[in-house]
Amino acid sequence: VGCDRSKNLVDICGEKHFQAFVCDALSVPIRSGSCDACISIAVIHHFSTAERRLATIRELARLLRPGGTALIYVWAMEQEYKNQKSKYLKEKNGSKNKEKEMNTGTAQRPLNDQGPDNCSQDSAWSNQLLNDFKDESCGAMPVADFRLPVHTNRTSFHSQDLLVPWHLKGRTKKKKENIDTVVVPRGSKELQELSPVFHRYYHVFSEGELEAVCRSLDCVKVQKSYYDQGNWCVILEKL
């Protein structure tokens, strides 16, 4: 049984005849102690506070029967580990993908490359947001710089808390329209409509951090902790 916060992703599971439902990882509507095993892949690093990240692991443990196991994957701060670059750093938009985009007019990325795209105007956009906010707050108390750094795609992380830009791909073409030939000014409203950018929050985990959070819970023990292609991973057992 699968669950996800995104209804659209859950609907895709239903179309493929998998059992899945919409829920929040902080409150899973499944009876306590009813699962032999649980898997949490690329979820916990989206929670913005240490308290929520701990609560998510506690909720995962609640679902397990005694002796049950859980596997957790989170994005690692260390994208280069033991002198080896992660798959994330190594992968680029290869020539095959470029050819496919040119031939089809759309950017269909393979399942194993569902990663974020960098947008060079993101920093300027973030600066503009801050300036607008300050302009609207004239006469009020000084506003703290609340911005998070915007990550540059396929590069090492320089902050544990950051925003990763995602471009929405696959805009539906009008009849006889080829998106590859559409030319619009950079940063224009029309360009944003063609490829809107969304900023997704991440907390990337440093070495030992995920294991330490898990060990703070009395109801589980850490069976194994390891690094796997740019991710920190833990296998837990319910006591």
From TrEMBL:
Gene Ontology terms: cellular component: cytoplasm; nucleus
Biased composition (Basic and acidic residues): 87-102
Region (Disordered): 87-118
Molecular function terms, GO-annotated: S-adenosylmethionine-dependent methyltransferase activity; tRNA (5-carboxymethyluridine(34)-5-O)-methyltransferase activity; tRNA binding
Superkingdom of the organism of origin: Eukaryota
One record GO biological process: tRNA methylation
Name the record gives this protein: ALKB8 protein
